[in-house]
Design a protein that fits this description.
This protein is an alpha/beta fold. The chain is built from 17 helices and 16 strands. The strands form 4 sheets. A 5-stranded parallel beta sheet has the order 3-2-1-4-16. A hairpin with a 5-residue loop joins strand 11 and strand 12.
Length: 477
């Protein structure tokens, strides 16, 4: 197909479940592309010799190569290319913000809409999952004899584990909770990332030889020194995330019915508290308010809506244009009836005589000069306070590093916020100990954590090989 013909093809749309139906259930919203539609979308790719889209991908997928395979109908070939660079394509194809990464650099975007790279990644991953094959090309190398411990089974940890296993190293992942997946299972709702997708991709890593041990809290069950000492690991990769929630610091936060988004989503997702028969309670409210503007806030408010809140209201202190949440998630929320209160900031949570939430007092804002983030600073408007009735308030304003691990490893250098300091290779101040993901960069996206995991695995491989070289003379003697 000539470039001129490709340019005439319009971007294909992802089928989605009806908004009214999905607002009351936890089934996945997006339904995936049918084969013919996926091929048609892939045919829009111009196959650029200098593929700028690859530069926008934190895990450096060879995007034109796998997309062209889809265009030809060679889905097996597309899967081989994709899995060579990405251990978790079914996950990243669903939750990665492609619109500000690979798709933002797609040349097609200069004359219309970019190629739907994320949709195609999801398509190939789903096709490969339903058409399993013994892939020798992407299989592991012979065993190296080295053992690597990975702390945390979130996106950074799982990615690093898969890469290390392919390199021939014995990778063991330690997970604090009772299911592997980290934020992928406790933080992202079923309607956006089905748990079965996570389980499937974890199972694929296990087939590579990755070992996952749950219910182990590093910093309590074992320390980093234990891992590198009595447990005999040659290197450690810390990817335990930044799961300590931040709060607004306003009056009323001690009332019953106030949640952090972390707690609310964990109870709903991992502990199945949305099920009335579950042993883990979760308040259901006729009216719910979520504070924040990121993807976690969107997940929380859409979960509250599915649990019966009507209205489920999102309060955000800036305008819609400044919201860091994905555009698709905002659109889906609007379709589902979420009420948005922009340029609004909470000043107090209101309670009744029994200590339960009855509402939240907010103040109108206006946008001023840009702050350190580059976004317009919200400025309060005097005398603009008003109340929103609700029975639960969910705060989704960010997280910070949990000191549980770092305080038991005093020679592990951290910054003033508690995040682990690493060099350009992901190495910490402790030799043989690497770190990546949110515990290094602060709360960020799944795909950035995956990129950290992939880079760290390469650095750990180099470190282990250098260690092997140093050991050779002693072994000869």
């Amino acid at each position: 197909m000539k470039p001129a013909e490709r340019l005439k093809i319009e971007r294909q749309r992802m089928p989605a479940r009806d908004a009214a139906e999905r607002a009351a259930t936890f089934g996945e919203v997006n339904l995936g592309l049918p084969e013919q539609i996926a091929m048609r979308e892939a045919q829009r790719c111009l196959g650029c010799k200098e593929a700028k889209c690859i530069n926008g991908c934190p895990v450096r997928i060879n995007i034109p190569a796998f997309v062209m395979k889809v265009a030809e109908g060679d889905f097996r070939g597309a899967a081989d290319v994709l899995l060579r660079d990405n251990a978790l394509p079914g996950i990243s194809g669903r939750v990665c913000p492609q619109e500000v990464q690979c798709e933002a650099l797609c040349v097609r975007g200069n004359r219309g809409e970019p190629v739907a790279i994320g949709y195609l990644e999801r398509f190939v991953a789903d096709w490969a999952r339903s058409h399993p094959a013994n892939n020798v090309e992407n299989g592991p190398l012979p065993p190296s004899g080295f053992r690597v411990a990975i702390v945390g089974s979130g996106p950074a940890g799982l990615t690093a584990a898969g890469e290390l296993a392919r390199m021939g190293h014995a990778a063991t992942v330690f997970e604090a909770l009772h299911q592997p997946g980290g934020v992928l299972v406790y933080g992202i709702p079923e309607f956006r990332l089905p748990k079965e997708i996570v389980r499937s991709e974890v199972a694929a890593l296990k087939k590579l030889g990755v070992e996952i041990i749950c219910n182990v809290v590093i910093g309590q069950t074992y320390t980093i020194d234990d891992l590198m000492g009595e447990l005999g690991y040659d290197a450690v990769f810390i990817a335990n995330g930044a799961g300590l929630p931040l709060f607004l610091g306003i009056p009323g936060e001690n009332l019953k019915g106030v949640y952090s988004a972390n707690e609310y989503l964990t109870r709903s997702n991992l502990m199945k508290a949305y099920d009335p028969t579950s042993d883990t309670p979760l308040l259901r409210a006729k009216q719910a308010v979520v504070v924040g503007g990121g993807n976690t806030a969107m997940d929380a408010v859409r979960t509250a809506r599915r649990l019966g809140a009507d209205p489920a209201t999102l309060v955000y202190r800036r305008s819609r244009a400044e919201m860091p949440a994905r555009a698709e998630e905002i659109l889906h929320a609007e379709e589902e009836g979420i009420v948005f209160q922009f340029l609004t900031n909470p000043v107090e949570i209101l309670g009744d005589e029994k200590g339960w939430v009855r509402g939240i007092r907010c103040q109108r804002m206006k946008l001023g000069e840009p702050d350190a983030s580059g976004r317009a600073r919200p400025v309060p408007i005097e005398g603009s306070e008003y109340d929103i009735p609700c029975q639960i308030v969910i705060e989704a304003i960010g997280t910070r590093a949990n000191p549980l691990l770092t305080k038991t490893t005093p020679d592990l250098q951290v910054d003033k916020k508690g995040y682990i300091i690493v060099d350009e290779n992901g190495m910490t101040s402790k030799p043989g100990v690497f770190a990546g993901g949110d515990i290094v960069r602060g709360a960020a996206t799944v795909i950035l954590a995956m990129g950290d995991g992939k880079r760290a695995a390469a650095a750990i491989d180099r470190y282990l090989k250098s260690k092997q070289v140093r050991l050779q003379p002693a072994q000869i003697l």
